[in-house]
Amino acid sequence: MPIIVNLDVMMAKRKMSLNELSQKVGLTLSNLSILKTGKAKAIRFSTLEVLCKVLDCQPADILEYQP
Q1: Cα 22 from Cα 26, distance rounded (Å)
Q2: SS (H, E, C) the chain
Q3: pLDDT given at position 40
Q4: The pTM of the whole model exceeds 0.85
Q5: CATH of 3-56, one of 1.50.10.150, 1.10.260.40, 1.20.1250.20, 3.40.50.1970
């Protein structure tokens, strides 16, 4: 898939664990793990918004298009 999810990169830059991120955004560990590994088929704008808020980043820092 040409959409790359860089959630793990942003988490590392912010020194945040998956458990900590899960608690702050209100998503389960399994759902965050699916997103982090790039296995998700879709993401809600509301989820992307809260991830950006918690990680203090832009959507383009999390999602990348590689043709």
Answers
A1: 6
A2: CCEEECHHHHHHHCCCCHHHHHHHHCCCHHHHHHHHCCCCCCCCHHHHHHHHHHHCCCHHHHEEECC
A3: 92
A4: yes
A5: 1.10.260.40
Query: Could you read off the pLDDT of 53-67 as tens digits, one per residue?
Result: 999 999 999 999 999
Q: By C-alpha distance, which of 7, 65, 58 is closest to 32?
A: 7
Distance between CA atoms of residues 52 and 36, nearest Å:
14
| Ranges of the chain with pLDDT below 70 | 1
R_g over Cα of the chain: 11
> Cα(11)–Cα(62) distance, rounded to whole angstroms?
10
